[in-house]
Amino acid sequence: MAQTTAQRLNMLQDKLLTEQFVHNTGLGNEVGFYIFDYAPQDELLVRTRVPEIRRYTEKQLQVKVQNFDLFTIVLQFFEARGYMDKNFQMEAKRGSAILFERMQKALKLATNRDELVSYIATHYDPNAIIFLTGVGKAYPIVRSHNLLNSLQPLITQMPLVLFYPGTYSYNKLKLFDQLSDDHYYRAFRIVGD
Predict the structure, then answer these.
(1) What is the pairing mode between strands 172-175 and 179-180?
(2) Origin, by domain of life (predicted)?
């Protein structure tokens, strides 16, 4: 019988405390990138539990855990430049698809000047466990595969956990259990069913 998301979050909390996880051992020279996939309808549960798991892990391990909410980073980028009103106006005039395309270009996603990657690179602690959240909220502007591929050369010492509303199976992601992605990921599913 499959575990519920609540049960799997408890298993995740236990897994984060293991020596193997913290020190990226037993991965066969692979990067310490993990995906915690969950049923999209459990998004609010995950949003509630992630800060609790973060605090618990920090207290138990005496290791910093940083959470980067992708949607929040995107909002901050556009707010800092005074683009929010312009974005709303563009969406009203030209539609959501054009707005999302323009937002992706402004963020320079999947380029060597990617603003999300730059933000994380500037703010992350190389001695901290990294959580990436907000994947569902940031869709369709941000795509997980581009971000993970861009972060792999950057985050090498400590593990990274991507919280993913959908399914990760056979190295393929399926966002919201509906949108298939044909990209291959060098990440591990951190907790099974």
Answers:
(1) antiparallel
(2) Bacteria
Coil, strand or helix at 58: helix
Environment class of 85 (CB within 10 Å of its CB; exposed 0-12, middle 13-18, buried 19+): exposed
Q: What is the pTM of this model?
A: 0.91
In order of 14, 50, 68, 110, 155, the CA distances from 147 in angstroms are 26, 20, 12, 7, 12
Query: Are β-strands 129-133 and 65-69 bridged in parallel, bridged antiparallel, or unpaired?
Result: parallel
**C-alpha 20: how far from its chain's center?**
21
Structure tokens at 46: 């995950």
User: Which of 178, 117, 177 lies closest to 142 in space, CA to CA?
Assistant: 117
User: How far apart, in whole angstroms, are the C-alpha atoms of residue 19 and residue 3?
Assistant: 24
Distance (Å, rounded) from C-alpha 143 to C-alpha 145?
Answer: 6
Which of 128-137, 144-153, 174-183 tops mean pLDDT?
A: 128-137
Q: How far is CA 39 from CA 46, 67, 130, 163, 172, in A?
A: 10, 20, 21, 11, 16
How far apart CA 177 and CA 37 sit, in angstroms, is 10
Domain boundaries, the chain: 5-189
Residue 116 tokens, joined: 């999300």
At 183, the pLDDT band (50, 70, 90 cuts) reads: low
